[in-house]
Design goal:
The protein is of the alpha+beta class. About 35% of the residues lie in helices and about 15% in strands. It is built from 14 helices and 26 strands. It has helices at about 25-30, 125-135, 140-145, 155-160, 170-215, 220-225, 235-260, 295-300, 345-350, 400-405, 410-420, 430-435, 440-485, 500-515; strands at about 20-25, 30-35, 50, 70, 85, 90, 100, 110, 115-120, 145, 150-155, 165, 295, 300-305, 315, 320-325, 330, 330-335, 340, 360, 370-375, 380-385, 385-390, 435-440, 550, 560. The strands form nine sheets. The chain has a four-stranded antiparallel sheet. It has a four-stranded antiparallel sheet with strand order 14-23-20-21.
Amino acid sequence: MFHEESFLHYPLPLSSLPRGWEYVSLADIAIDVNPGFASGEHNSNGSGIPHLRPMNIDRNGKINVSIIKSVAATRGRVLTAGDVLFNNTNSPELVGKTALISLREQGYAFSNHMTRLRLERHVETAFVAHQLHFFWMSGYSRHRCTNHVNQASISSNTLISTIPLVLPPAKEQRRIVEKLEEILSDLDIGVTELTAARKKLEQYRQSLLKAAVDGTLTASWREVQLQQQSEPEETGAQLLERILTGRRARWEAKQLAKFAERGRTPPKGWQSKYPEPIRPDIANLSKLPERWVWASLDQLTEFITTGSRGWADYYASDGALFIRSQNINKDRLDLSDVAFVNPPCNSEGARTRVKQDDLLLTVTGANVGKAARVDVELEEAYVSQHVALMRPMDAALSGYLHLFLTAVGGGRGQLEKDAYGAGKPGLNLQQLGAVAIPIPAREEVGALMDVVSLQLSAATQQEQSVGFTLKRAAAQRQNILKAAFSGQLVPQDPNDEPASVLLERIRAERAAAGADVGKRGTRNPRTVMKRSKPVVPASSAPTSAAGDVRRCDCLGTIETIDP
């Protein structure tokens, strides 16, 4: 019935099928397999008919319409409650997501990247929807994809004829669906609560960062200093002046070194060639606390640069680290998956070499505007053309500058406004240099960072705990589904009509009606099945009834009970 490759990476046990179960293809049980249509005339104002796209099926196999586009007409492709919607085209990791259509989505249109499945009346649609989504969760769908340049797909022919589904007796299908709905609803409640907790932690993080960079967080610290009539060793203005003086002195020292290397005497007026840093535009900025001052990122850094496109010529299997935009993950430096280069022995290598306390920021792509601080010493590392490298003049300000660049109420807001102003997201070095940054007195920077570090550390630990529990919940969902489609979620009833009889009834009804429906509404899906070298796994032999599975805790483990 199926080719041997259909069972490669198959997520269900092949040793045996439960009593009364059969392997089937969608061609055996579907009466309609139809893709939707593309539309370049979407709108987001709710005018017209909602048009479901791949993003509207979430990772739990549910329809999510929090972001929905609409079209003017359905073009005859509409959804009905009970339809199964399969994501046929997406990135390789996402092809195969599947959801059951409810009354809420009845009448909606759907994209050509989705396939609508309508099943025979004897088959539980929810059972098939859950099973197809389980195949996606387990990674099986990815192995059945055809990979293209920027995406992957599963064709209708592949879907209906080469993907083995398990089919229990009709009554057992209903028992399995009822049990799944009971268990998964408990799991969904737990996941919803965890997701809300993670969102609140992110909101707290951003509130903390905003309070830090606008002076609210250290207001009481300044009040104590005022009561004690304690003057800071260095106000924000004095700190900025010292940095600017040092910045110019460092530039002059480099220029003199270049003249000396070339054996030349510095020409008259060479110091006037100093490129003055960009001044911040403070016309529409808020008033700062006392002893704070506005500065530009350009004023506070020795340089701001990016890598060049030519680095591809130096890729290697090992060597120096090559930091790309994907290595700046959630505003942290993530070196779990890096590329390597053998750097050129020229100015390009020296210019883009990363040091401890440097700041990195993505300047192109979907990840644009994310910042990371190099808080460890790297033996040798360089940046790609998609990453800006910034070296603070005062390393003690590195942590504070990173904090400001990641705050939505600070640098993040300025950068997002520039990056998404028009066209493809991206930032240039001029935009980075012009970012306006509030600089406190030097002592206040230290007090501020002490408080922020302590509270961010606690928030990060809670986020990690929530993330771990969500991963465990996802694994539990997959285990529950695997139990369902292996015959371990509910007991088999020997009095149930076997699936083989159900299939015979379907074939008889099709023959009697002269049915020729299916793909695109005109063709019997069975006619496209490949018949050469069929393989029926050993699992087709009947077995004894499987154990029952009692109600499980939403984040616990499945308890199997012998009948």
